[in-house]
Design goal:
- Residues 25-42 have a biased composition (Polar residues).
- Residues 43-54, 70-94 have a biased composition (Acidic residues).
- One of its GO terms (molecular function) is calcium ion binding.
- The protein is mainly β and 452 residues long.
- Helices cover 0% and strands 34% of the residues.
- A hairpin with a 2-residue loop joins strand 1 and strand 2.
- It is rod-shaped.
């Protein structure tokens, strides 16, 4: 072999033997304490090694193996399917075209997969990684990594550290691992598992499935029909546009369903839920929940716990179920069922149906022509000025009470008439009418009233 200006050229094979009589291989490298420049042969499958300095290694075309070892190396695989090992140091690595495998190892590495279906591991420390075009698998490993999947259906794992993960275009699978991660799915139908830590997740465009997992997470569905799961921790969940399914999970969550006909389940804990626009189905589930269903005609179940429900606009259906619930129908024609527990039911505006349920409930018809069933227990039927023509369907004499608020001070102010199989009470000046079904005139006396 020959040595010229610190450049070694030798035959392919054992460099310690005598050179056979054939053309030398064109691989070249510098032998000195200075950084090496190592270039492969285009079209050959070259093993290319650096040393402990800041080396520049280029594979060119061919299925090459590049080893940077220690130092801050610049490595490019070139065309075809290459393997790049950065070793220790802050390396700059490019797979270029082909299905490449790139390993940053220790150090603050910048890794670019390029075109092709690449496998990339950042290694320890905080790395910057771009997958490029293709179906890539990217692992940040340790450190606070910045990872961009690029085009294609990528798998991205942040693993340990506070990572920033961007799926970009394609149907991506992103997993934050441990740490407080920022995750953006980008375009496409993405799957995100944020992992442990207080994570910030954006589904972006597409029909995404987003899991906050453990920690106090903030999750935005953005566009598309999304499935959002808060998991453990006090989460902030935003469905935004689209008809989304949103599950709060454990602990005290706050949920904004957004536009669209959404399904919302608060899960365990004392949750705050805003249905916003759309015809939503909202379950408070366990815990003492606060629910504002928002515009449109919604269905609301308080479930277990002492819940507060505001139905908002639209003709809504509310079931308090277990617990001491407070329920407001607000606008339009609502149906409210208290269930078990000493409940408060207020129909608000519109022609409402109120059903107290199993215990001693308070039922307020509000404006409009309302129908009220107290159910079991000593119930109070409350009437205010402007109530319209209200009907009590199951008054129990000696058990239930008629509460009058603001427009009368004595039952003598009502004209009483037995008619239609019941008793009609009409205020002598304001004209409010209360009709009590299935009772006789003799059964209604001053002891049945409470003036508030």
């Amino acid at each position: 072999m020959t040595i010229e200006s610190e450049i070694v050229t030798g035959p392919e094979g054992d460099i310690y033997g005598d050179a056979p009589a054939k053309a030398p291989k064109t691989t070249s490298q510098t032998l000195s304490a200075s950084p090496l420049t190592v270039t492969g042969t285009s079209g050959d499958d070259d093993p290319l090694d650096g040393d402990d300095n800041n080396d520049t290694i280029s594979g060119l075309a061919g299925n090459d193996v590049l080893n940077g070892f220690e130092g801050d190396d610049v490595m490019s695989g070139g065309d075809d399917d290459d393997v790049l090992n950065g070793g220790d140091g802050n390396d700059d690595m490019s797979g270029d075209a082909g299905n490449d495998s790139l390993y940053g190892n220790a150090g603050l590495d910048s890794i670019y997969g390029g075109d092709g279906d690449d496998y990339i591991r950042g290694g320890d420390d905080a790395d910057y990684i771009e997958g490029g075009v293709g179906v890539d698998q990217i692992l940040g490993d340790g450190g606070n990594d910045d990872i961009y999947g690029g085009d294609g259906d990528d798998e991205i794992y942040g693993n340990a550290g506070d990572d920033d993960l961007f799926g970009e275009a394609g149907n991506d699978d992103l997993r934050g691992g441990t740490g407080n991660d920022n995750i953006d799915g980008g375009d496409g139908d993405d799957l995100v598992r944020a992992g442990d830590g207080d994570d910030y997740v954006i589904g972006a465009l597409g029909d995404d499935t987003l899991f906050g997992d453990d920690g106090a997470d903030t999750i935005y569905g953005v566009g598309g029909v999304d499935n959002i799961y808060g998991g453990a921790g006090e989460d902030l969940l935003y469905g935004q546009s689209g008809s989304d399914d949103i599950f709060g999970g454990d602990d005290n969550d706050t949920i904004w369903a957004g536009t669209g006909n959404d399904y919302v389940n608060g899960g365990e804990g004392d949750d705050v839920i805003y249905g916003e626009d759309g015809k939503d189905a909202i379950f408070g589930d366990t815990g003492n929940d606060w629910i504002d269903a928002g515009a449109d005609s919604d269905r609301i179940w308080g479930e277990d716990g002492d819940d507060v429900v505001y139905a908002g606009g639209g003709s809504d259906r509310i079931k308090g179920n277990n617990g001491v619930d407070i329920m407001y129908g607000q606008n339009n024609n609502d149906a409210i069922y208290g269930g078990a527990g000493t409940d408060y039911l207020d129909g608000g505006n519109g022609n409402d149906w109120l059903l107290g349920g199993w215990d001693a409930d308070e039922l307020v018809g509000g404006a409009g022509n309302d129908k009220m069933w107290g159910g079991q227990g000593a119930d109070v039927f409350v009437f205010e000025a402007g109530t319209g023509f209200d009907i009590i369907k199951d008054f129990e004499d000696g058990i239930d009470t008629i509460g009058i608020v603001g427009f009368a001070t004595s039952d003598s102010e009502f004209l009483k008439e037995e008619i239609w199989g019941g008793v009609k009470l009409e205020h002598d000046t304001t004209g409010e009418i209360i009709f009590i079904e299935n009772v006789a005139l003799a059964d209604i006396g001053s002891s049945d009233f409470a003036f508030i």
